[in-house]
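To the team - s-citryldethia Coenzyme A complex, inputs and output below.
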Amino acid sequence: MAESITITDNRTGESFEVPIVDGTVSAQQWSKHLPGIWFLDPALVTTAMSESAISYLDGEAGILRYRGYPIEQLAEQSTYLEVAYLLLNGELPTQAELSAWVEEVTHHTFIHENVRKRFLEGFHYDAHPMGMMMSTIAALATFYPEARNIADPNVRYQQIVRLIGKMPTVAAFAYRHRLGLPYIYPDPELSYTKNYMNMLWRRTEPKYMASPVLSRALEVLFILHADHEQNCSTNAMRAVGSSQADPYSTTAAAIAALSGPLHGGANEAVLRMLDEIGSKDNIPGFIEQVKAGKCKLMGFGHRVYKNYDPRARIIKRVAEEVFEVTGRNPKIDIAVELERIALSDEYFIKRKLYPNVDFYSGIIYQAMGFTPDHFTVLFGIPRTAGWLAQWQEMLTDPEQKIARPRQVYTGAEKRDFVPIEARGHQLVTA
Ligand code: SDX
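Output:
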């Protein structure tokens, strides 16, 4: 049986056959036969916007692979910078390649003093760290004007190294700014995650000694958050990058998309939800509120996963390891009971709603000492590698051009201008 569909235009009786390739049919083929007839697909729910070789998700089976490697194996055996190299280059690095890559990134962790003194200092003490991160990363474009030359692979590589290197510094400076603490500068002798912890938490000690359990937990969390195919913020990265904007402005757009509570902002929203629930006794009442459509069970549900998010399973295990060091965060007990009740309730079963990556991550971050408004920053730091890998893949894809979707116009028909003295009586339509 041919892997194809046959489309008949009943207006003309003409039929044409379109092959089914990789589970898709080509919109270009459609347009060739039916010019001017568009697919209406709000939020691109049923549209593949690109081909990509970076991440593979199987939503029904709950599978995630980066460049073919199962996320469970990478979380167990790899490091964040090694995974970043894999996402960007398509292959795991040799020891020499990894050492050179780590050296490069480590020596691009500093940010221009003007960014610290003039820009970050300008924020109010209680500015949300995602707003600080988004605008500071955009501001970096003004320090590297050559970054606009995105056609040059060497220029792209230089900005990729700078962005991956500087994200933890910007994030840590935002954290210290909120607390009114002096900034701690990067320590090139520390690993990526230990250096981030150093810039966050070093006080007066001459050398920050990170807990090996907590730094490994952060490494695993960074690996789990590194990429996730065409999620909302990656879509923003690709759309903005398709106009050939510089990578700093493009990454700032991705950070903006990530900040929303339906996306990366969900980990902060989960903690606020658990605070609101307060105790296990209140869970049944809260679940009823959700089922009545009055609120969402934050950290649950996913556009692709209709099974348990494989990352949530790993994070739940990491939580127990972190609690060995930090002490148990009692919110985990509410979360586990909330999951147990939800997974046995027809409302969630019918809609295939399972815990996603954000359901347990915030509980770990809070136990590690982060305030909830910093949680999404902890998502944005590692996702930078994925955003940049997807950005680079888009720029080097011969099929790609500036993103410019069509629309279905539902507004007013042609009408003549109304002088202001004659206005006011016509019905104001929304
Ligand atoms: C991330 O895309 C990615 O890959 C994202 C991400 C990544 O790594 O980049 O995985 C990270 O963003 C994870 C998702 C974090 N967001 C949340 O936890 C917020 C809560 N979740 C929902 O808002 C929702 O599940 C979404 C946004 C995640 C997915 O929404 P969809 O695919 O648009 O699904 P939908 O809104 O059409 O929901 C289908 C049904 C609806 O019910 P009915 O109208 O059919 O009766 O399920 C219900 C929804 O009301 N539903 C929920 C729910 N999520 C969906 N009901 C209660 N609680 C929820 N969380």
